[in-house]
Design a protein that fits this description.
The chain is an alpha+beta fold. It is built from four helices and six strands, in the order H-H-H-E-E-H-E-E-E-E. The chain has a single domain, classed as Nuclear Transport Factor 2, Chain: A (Roll), CATH 3.10.450. The relative contact order is 0.16.
């Protein structure tokens, strides 16, 4: 009997703590122009369903990591992966970034159109090659509660 009471108490406390967690409001930040250009081009090529142009934003040996899909490596494979993707008014928001020499990362959220709340989040790892920032890895996943 004591075991059942303790178990019930523990489960109740877990449920209360989980249900009391609320989404944080994270302030969007501005990127330096050369990094912002990568996101702007990504949004444009996505909206136009232009798989070749999307793939051109990646390094030759870049990666995309999407939920429910196998890891994709290489610009040519990235293009193939994006052939039937895209379309819609993608909006990429930035919440953090860092640049160290020829490497950078961006952490952000995404949505479509004028929707206020993010539908998902992403991280980009970028490499500066021949003076141009290219995406080396793109990982995203959708939010489960929207």
């Amino acid at each position: 009997m004591k075991y059942h009471r303790m178990l019930t108490l523990c489960l109740t406390l877990i449920i209360i703590s989980v249900t009391s967690v609320q989404a944080q409001t994270i302030q969007e930040i501005e990127l330096p122009n050369e990094l912002k250009k990568v996101l702007t081009n990504y949004e444009t090529h996505w909206k136009n369903s232009d798989a070749k142009a999307l793939a051109s934003l990646f390094t030759e040996d870049g990666f995309i990591l999407r939920p429910g899909h196998d890891l994709v490596k290489g610009r040519e494979n990235i293009q193939t992966s994006y052939e039937n993707a895209g379309g819609g008014d993608l909006v990429l928001r930035t919440y953090d970034y860092s640049v160290q020499g020829n490497l950078a990362y961006i952490i952000g959220g995404y949505t479509y159109g004028s929707r206020v709340k993010d539908m998902g989040k992403y991280t980009l790892t970028l490499k500066k090659i021949n003076g141009n920032w290219l995406i080396h890895s793109d990982m995203d996943n959708g939010n489960s509660t929207n």
